[in-house]
Specification:
about 400 residues; Rossmann fold; 2 domains; nine-stranded mixed sheet; six-stranded parallel sheet
């Protein structure tokens, strides 16, 4: 099959978090199964990355921007004319669709609140090409720019969803949100995310040594965007509460990830108010071996989100053998509960108590650590890739949809 994946962010721009990692895993997995996979994405400064050579990437010019090929996947980076946070304006996408869209059997659009997806969806409807939409947990506006997001749904989002042949969710929670928004159950397909385990693991102690954390200290790790949606402030309050109860036990809380909307400054000020600023470190975005080193050295990983369609970082922590604590609002919660981690309400006292249990109850920690390997064995990408392959095959084998322009006649 000839598959076009459309995403606002893609490798090597991994600073955007889970979406580029997910799209890469699915794309490369499908390519390994013999399919022709192309990723259409925005250019967030690829030429600058090429010049630094830090990531040892190569690319070439194409009629539509930069083109990279890796692990069987071709990626097209459409020039970005304007950007606002993680949203870009890429006028060449319409030219790409006119020239290339007829060469594909199916389209998979990842994410909402961008302009790439609606443009490709409109061209797909016009050409009678089936497309799949994966909102990536964005369907329900939670924080930031709520009015703009509602306007987006009015102008583009509703048509984008209605025209999709299938809508992918990664948890029952996300499926219920879509159903509550009027999306037909028959159109929604549940498919979990996966986790990519590195070929080799960093030596234990590497991350601690790099950041001056002694082996005796208890290390609590948060890894992800410093975003209000992920509630890092909830974790900070829980940590301060626990630190006050266990004053004689050295502990460090690490916040690893890119700052969003000045959240880092707010957290730093709050940490000072709570009297724990000296026990907090902000280490910024970390990737690759550094990321896995952090997971390996942590005593516990915490994802305190107020809404999370899955929770890829919790899956990665578990893959590294580190027990995780997630709120009950995280889609991954049922996969981890009492086997590789603890699930708690979105409440600082409950979170503080769970951290204390994993840090100080030896038997519990040993049981959860042992469960990490079991859970990881069920979180590979092979199953999600096969599910997408089956869906695409079904959609591509259906009679060609009538073009939107014909339907209106």
């Amino acid at each position: 099959m000839r598959i076009l994946n459309v995403t606002e962010t893609y490798a090597p721009f991994l600073e955007f978090g889970g979406p580029p990692v997910k799209v890469r895993a699915l794309s490369e997995g499908l390519a390994r199964r013999g399919h022709q996979v192309t990723v259409l994405t925005a250019d967030w400064g690829l030429e600058k990355r090429l010049q630094t050579q830090e990531e040892k990437i190569t690319a070439e010019r194409s009629p539509f921007g930069w083109r990279r090929t890796g692990n069987g996947v071709q990626a097209i980076y459409i020039p970005t004319w304007l950007r606002y946070r993680s949203v870009s304006w890429n006028p060449a996408v319409k030219r790409y669709c006119r020239a290339r869209l007829q060469n594909f059997d199916v389209v998979h659009i990842f994410g909402l609140y961008d302009l790439l997806g609606p443009a490709v969806a409109a061209a797909s409807r016009k050409g009678g090409l089936p497309y799949v939409l994966e909102p990536i947990g964005m369907f329900v506006p939670i924080v930031r720019s709520l009015l703009l997001k509602r306007m987006y749904h009015t102008i583009w989002g509703r048509r984008l969803l209605e025209g999709a042949s299938a809508v992918i969710v990664t948890s029952k929670q996300e499926g219920e949100e879509l159903a509550g928004g009027g999306i037909a159950h028959s159109k929604v397909l549940l498919r979990r995310n996966g986790v990519e385990v590195p070929a080799s693991w960093p030596t234990r102690g590497t991350f601690r040594k790099a950041h001056g954390i002694s082996p005796e200290e208890k290390l609590i790790l948060f890894l992800g965007r410093l975003s209000a949606k992920k509630s890092p402030d909830l974790l900070l309050r829980a940590f301060a509460e626990l630190s006050g109860r266990t004053a004689g036990i050295p502990m460090t809380l690490i916040f690893a990830g890119p700052d969003e909307s000045g959240e880092k400054a707010k957290l730093s000020e709050l940490a000072s108010q709570l009297g724990v600023r000296t026990k907090i470190q902000f280490v910024g975005p970390i990737f690759g071996e550094n990321k896995w080193a952090a997971y390996r050295d942590a005593d516990v990983f915490v994802l305190p989100s107020q809404n999370e369609n899955f929770g890829n970082t919790a899956a990665e922590a578990v893959a590294a053998g580190t027990p995780a604590i997630v709120t009950e609002r995280c889609g991954i919660a049922p996969l981890l509960a009492d086997e590789a981690g603890l699930v708690v309400p979105h409440d600082p006292a409950a979170l503080s108590g769970a951290i204390e249990r994993i840090l100080h109850e030896t038997e519990l920690r040993a049981r959860l650590a042992a469960g990490c390997a079991v859970v990881t064995s069920r979180l590979g990408w092979d199953e999600p890739v096969r599910e997408m392959e089956t869906l695409y095959t079904t959609l591509a084998s259906r009679p060609v949809m009538k073009a939107e322009s014909e339907q209106k006649e």
